[in-house]
Amino acid sequence: MRIVIVGGGFAGINLAKGLAGDKNFDVTLVDKNNYNFFPPLIYQVATAFLEPSSISYPFRKLFRKNENIHFRLGEVLSVRTEDNVVVLNNGELEYDRLVFATGAESNYFGMENVRKNAIPMKTLNDAIEMRNKLLQRMEKAAICKNSRERRKYLNIVVAGGGPTGVEVSGMFAEMRNGILRKEYPELSTSVSNIYLVDGGDALLAPMSKKSQKDTYEALEKLGVIIKLNTRVVDFKDDTVYFHNGETIQSKNLIWAAGVSAKTFEGIPETSYGRGKRFSVDGYNKVANTTNIYALGDTSIMEGVDSAFMGGHPQLAQVAIQQGTLLAKNLKRELKNEALKTFKYNDKGSMAIIGKNKAVADLPKPEMHFKGFIAWIMWLFIHVMSLIGYRNRIITAYNWMIAYLSKDQSLRMIIRPDKSRKKGEVAPD
Q1: pTM reported for the whole predicted model
Q2: Is 141 helix (H, G, I), strand (E, B) or coil?
């Protein structure tokens, strides 16, 4: 059976792993990057606490011992469902089963200025771009003589009160209160504010009330200014505009406020559900198709799982479990065995706020943790979730050094060469 997997995130990797070594399957993994990366930690790359290589791993190295797994660097342009062909930007692939595991991308809700000017937080490229921009703006602030203009460089607005927004805000607050004041003596008397804004009435909305309360209080103690029930409506001329008429002067709007799935030419419009996500049945098969599947953030399974009738949350564990189950179901299909429907096993949620500060909710039994214990839990789970022993060791080492020294030495501005014209490459 020829399987084409589009996307090498949590879902795609776990599906490929589940089929690796089985000669009944010829698997091709397609991704626009040649590496898998760990999204929950991209903000640590963005804030210069981890190197990009610490949270990423090359696909070819990951599957080099599996003869039935192939990698293709490319992007999907369209699908010819009648021919069972997926068209890439560099060729075509035939399939017996096509699986979309393309995740989600930033959703700017139609605000073009926000899309053009804000800093997204979805990919490793975003993280590196954010690190470069913020470090460059700190350098500009250090030589800026106009105090009002300097404040624009220093103020940071984080849109989105989910785990990413909370974690980024906490990290920036700790950096402002420690590292940056040591390294930028020119700014020691300058005023800088970190704002965390969200359109809802609570931070970490999917988590427990206790976690929401603990997070709010911890961020306030760090000096983060929290604005709930507040929506960004525009970002232009170094000004963030809100729906209630308020504004904040800043060059730095970090966008962690929403995501949207991708659509693909050749897939019927009736196959999509809420948020452009593929509408799937209990086996993750896409509606109105015969041999196309979708996993993780790019899919929505409604009316199947009794505990999540409106669809599952867009979390890593959902993607991992769906990828693992689909691999088993494809094997069952070849053996003419009954397929199993997906039922999400909720293992809990957690978010880190700062040093020795985190929150964690466990559903079975229902338990809530905060502070140092939750922080240790967060560190352990995230280290163990990384691919490869090298990444785990390096990440744990970097965190240990940062914890003991209250510092990190990865704040280098590394920019691509912009002297060449777009599309021009260096000679061989």
Answers
A1: 0.89
A2: helix
